[in-house]
């Protein structure tokens, strides 16, 4: 049986299941307990599981992640929340020099099964440091898994898989999609955590995206269909590792690729995808791989964010340019 629920609720249900299934799972973060998180993603969990399992922490991101590392060393599986994307940087040192490195440093003897939840991206009219997309910064660091669901079903199952992983996972939650509803089948068998999924079949061009931009790409495909263009939409789901095989298979069929993400295009994840697919699919491509994303500038005030973020017209313009080759 499938239940229709918002993406935020799906994560809440997934965390609840993890707490029920494994006494070693803990949730930590600023206001995750009594308040239930600023987006209410952890609503009701402290009430049901107690303050020793769902822990309100001080406003100290470095301390939150550092404590989670210590708990993981003692056999726990901490799930920590960074309240907003831009607040993760005080914890960046702990994440990239400790959390990501311990497995290699110990020659595989030490595992750190920590999930770092980060609401990210724009579209909610927030103030500075509340709408950033820093996924490429973490994807550059070996030893970390980087994932981002685009819908409620993936949010539920990918959180389960992230918690069960013995490797640290940075779990980017698209905050503008928190209230989008979709069906979640809690009895289904999930696919691999890092496997991309074709969410719309097409023949003329591939749109590849993850997290908040997948819905936009589906809207672009709908608009393009009115002009007789048949676009494929590929939900990458995982940024590191990235399922290049699925991207390659789609591009070999459509012969064109546009990568869409909210993060700045300059040195963004789309650049790596473009380079790798150009290497793999050089003789299949009928146009250069194009990228649509944010600008190489600080995230703007709320009144200007719609000019900064990729939108329907900007992606359709890229579609026109690609098909013009």
Q: Strand order, biggest sheet?
A: 3-2-4-5-7-6-12
Q: Write down the overall geometry.
A: globular
Number of strands: 14
Order of helices and strands: EHEHEHEHHEHEHEEEEHEEHEHEHH
Approximately how much helix is present in the residues?
25-40%
Number of helices: 12
Average predicted local confidence, pLDDT = 97
Strand content: 15-25%
Give the low-confidence spans.
Answer: none
Give the oligomeric state. Answer: single chain
Rg from alpha-carbon coordinates: 19 Å
Largest sheet: 7 strands, mixed
Coarse structural class? alpha/beta
Spatial separation of the terminal alpha carbons = 47 Å
What does this entry look like structurally?
- With 325 residues, the chain is an alpha/beta fold.
- The chain is built from twelve helices and 14 strands.
- The protein has helices at residues 7-21, 45-49, 61-73, 92-99, 102-105, 135-139, 152-164, 213-225, 244-254, 269-280, 305-308, 312-323; strands spanning 2-6, 25-29, 54-56, 77-81, 115-120, 145-147, 169-174, 181-185, 197-200, 205-209, 231-235, 238-240, 257-264, 290-294.
- The strands form three sheets. Strands 3-2-4-5-7-6-12 form a seven-stranded mixed beta sheet, with helices on both faces. A five-stranded mixed beta sheet has the order 9-11-10-13-14, sandwiched between helices.
- Helix 1 runs parallel beside helix 7 and helix 8 (213-225) crosses helix 12.
- The termini are far apart.
């Amino acid at each position: 049986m499938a239940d229709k629920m918002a993406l935020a609720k799906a994560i809440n249900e997934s965390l609840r299941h993890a707490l029920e299934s494994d006494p070693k799972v803990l949730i930590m973060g600023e206001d995750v307990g009594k308040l239930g998180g600023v987006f209410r993603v952890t609503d009701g969990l402290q009430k049901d599981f107690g303050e020793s399992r769902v822990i309100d922490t001080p406003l100290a991101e470095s301390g939150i992640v550092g404590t989670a590392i210590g708990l993981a060393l003692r056999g726990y599986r901490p799930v920590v929340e960074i309240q907003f994307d831009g607040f993760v940087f005080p914890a960046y040192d702990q994440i990239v020099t400790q959390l990501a490195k311990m497995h290699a440093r110990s020659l595989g003897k030490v595992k750190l099964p920590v999930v770092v939840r980060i609401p990210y991206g724009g579209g909610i009219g927030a103030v500075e440091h509340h709408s950033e997309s820093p996924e490429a910064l973490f994807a550059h660091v070996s030893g970390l898994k980087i994932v981002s669901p685009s819908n409620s079903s993936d949010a539920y199952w990918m959180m389960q898989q992230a918690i069960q992983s013995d490797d640290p996972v940075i779990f980017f939650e698209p905050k503008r999609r928190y209230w989008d509803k979709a069906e979640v089948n809690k009895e289904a068998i999930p696919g691999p955590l890092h496997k991309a999924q074709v969410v719309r079949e097409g023949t003329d061009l591939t749109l590849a995206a993850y997290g908040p931009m997948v819905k936009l790409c589906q809207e672009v495909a709908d608009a393009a269909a009115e002009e007789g263009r048949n676009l494929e939409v590929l939900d990458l789901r995982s940024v590191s590792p990235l399922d290049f095989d699925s991207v390659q298979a789609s591009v070999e069929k459509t012969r064109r690729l546009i990568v869409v993400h909210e993060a700045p295009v300059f040195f963004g994840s789309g650049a790596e995808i473009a380079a790798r697919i150009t290497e793999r699919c050089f003789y299949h491509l009928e146009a250069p791989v194009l990228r649509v994303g944010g600008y190489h500038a600080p995230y703007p005030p709320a009144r200007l964010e719609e000019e900064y973020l990729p939108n329907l017209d900007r992606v359709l313009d890229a579609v026109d340019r690609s098909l013009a080759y």
